[in-house]
Amino acid sequence: MTSLTAWQVLLIVGIALVLMDYFILPLLLFPFGFGFIAASLVLYLTNSNFWAWTTFSLISILGIIYAYKLRQKSKPQKEIKDTPDFQGRVGKVIGREGAFYKVEFSTGLLGETLWLAKPKNDEELKEGQKVEVVELRGNILIVEPIKE
Asked: Considering the entire predicted model, what is its pTM?
């Protein structure tokens, strides 16, 4: 029975980390997996632990920086309040929940038909009353009643 050499162990660990990253934790283990794979190649070619660990460190650090930049690009750049289709939308008050009113929209805002709302001037709203969205604060709509 033959025993594994150090470069073979590093290669196996590197491949295992890349596979685990692919199936479990996207972009978390990937840089270290490539670092181990590169270190195993350097160790095989030079038989120098110093250069193997230096290669592992550099590849891992560069991979972490690259993964961080990829994650930043994949995050949505616009906030919900920048969405122009909120203002002027008309909904109907269907009830109350604590300090807020429940307002229903027939077509939905961002995929939701039921939103919590607060009147702009702290006036009382009645069930069935139509309201118009004037602002969005966090996930609460600020509305004004429509005079009929």
From this structure: 0.50
Q: Which burial class, exposed, middle or buried, applies to 65 when counting CB atoms under 10 A from its CB (0-12, 13-18, 19+)? A: exposed
Domain definitions of the chain by residue range: 6-74, 80-145
* Whole-number CA gyration radius for the chain: 28
Q: Identify the architecture of domain 80-145 in CATH.
A: Beta Barrel (2.40)
All residues at 6 or more sequence positions from 4 whose CB lies less than 8 Å from its CB, including other chains:
12
CA atoms within 13 A on the CB side of 42: 18
pLDDT in tens, 91-145: 889 988 888 899 887 766 555 678 888 998 888 888 888 998 888 887 788 899 8
Q: How far apart are CA 19 and CA 32, in angstroms?
A: 12
CA triple 122-98-142, angle to 5 deg: 40
2, two tokens: 């033959």
The helix (H) or strand (E) run that includes residue 26 is none
- Report the C-alpha gap between 88 and 143 in whole angstroms: 9
Q: How far is CA 91 from CA 100, 101, 103, 106, 133, in A?
A: 14, 11, 6, 7, 8
